[in-house]
């Protein structure tokens, strides 16, 4: 109950940050979805061919989960690292929101592309390849963005109004929150590396009947 109270208090204190992150992320999803509709035929054909070859290869060759896990960690840690670095800058907020927009764009683009390319069956491939890990990723990503914007805004306010440095308690709170979110992110990477390939294989072999 204490945690819920803290979350509720944080939401009331930073309602604007929650709104900005959510809006930019959703706008990115919408832009990504519409981009697929306006993609030219050659690009669409190339991407469809690439993804079809990928779905075939995943049924024929065993997945090296360890290598996949390392690749996923590199991708996620790079994105998380950018947000954390921006959190320690005075004018990091607009750039963090830009990262949110790009993240939403890639998610909306990928989901819409899979559905439109593979017709009705694409919904199953989109769900198993995107949904499992993103159930964990998206809340963590949004939470991390809000924490980063909150810290960056604190630095901006202290720099130009209070004329004092951000105290160590605030920095420790940031490190603690980021540490918790990183642990949850790790769960998402394990899901993406070990669960999603099996789900994709199941859909490809049973819905698309590749083999």
UniProtKB/TrEMBL annotation:
Query: From what superkingdom does this record's organism come?
Result: Bacteria
Task: Supply the alphabetized keyword list.
Answer: Membrane, Transmembrane, Transmembrane helix
Listed transmembrane segments: 16-36, 77-99, 111-130, 136-153, 174-195
**InterPro entries linked to this entry:** SpoIIM (IPR014196), SpoIIM-like (IPR002798)
What Pfam families would the database entry show? SpoIIM (PF01944)
What is the protein's given name? Stage II sporulation protein M
Which organism was this protein described from?
Answer: Clostridium celatum DSM 1785
